[in-house]
Design goal:
Layout (H helix, E strand, L loop, with lengths): L5 E5 L6 E6 L2 H16 L4 E8 L5 E9 L2 E8 L2 E9 H18 L1
Antiparallel strand pairs: 1-2, 3-4, 4-5, 5-6
C-alpha cells in the first residue's frame, strides 16, 4: 500500500474486476460496513458510491437491496464492468473480509 492507496478486487464467476490506486479507501470501507448494517434491518436500500483512483479515474458502484437480494453494479464511462447478485449475508461476509484485510495495509 503506497500513500494510503489500495487495490480493490470484485470477484464473481468469470474474470475478477481489479481497481488499482484507489484513494479514500477507509471512507469506502466504512460506507460499505454501514450499508451492510442497514441491510440487516431488512429495509430496502439504493446506494451509489464513486470510487476514485489517484490517476483521476472514477467508477460508479451502485448497490440495490430489495426483498433480501443485493445487486451490485460497477460502471466506468457508461459501461457495465462488473455485476453481482446475492444475499445480504453474502454481501456482509464480503465486506467483513475486506475490512479484515485493512489493518494489514493502514
Amino acid at each position: 500500500m503506497k500513500d494510503r492507496q489500495a487495490c480493490l478486487v470484485f470477484k464473481s464467476t468469470g474474470k475478477p474486476c481489479k481497481l488499482f490506486n484507489l484513494i479514500e479507501v477507509l471512507h469506502f470501507a466504512g460506507e460499505m460496513k454501514l450499508l451492510s448494517a442497514a441491510m440487516d434491518t431488512g429495509a430496502a436500500q439504493n446506494y451509489a458510491y464513486t470510487l476514485r483512483s489517484a490517476d483521476g479515474l472514477e467508477r460508479r458502484l451502485i448497490c440495490c437491496f430489495v426483498q433480501e437480494v443485493v445487486k451490485l453494479e460497477l460502471w466506468f464511462k457508461a459501461q457495465l464492468k462488473f455485476s453481482w447478485q446475492g444475499t445480504a449475508k453474502e454481501f456482509r461476509a464480503a465486506v467483513d473480509r475486506m475490512l479484515a484485510k485493512l489493518p494489514h495495509f493502514f
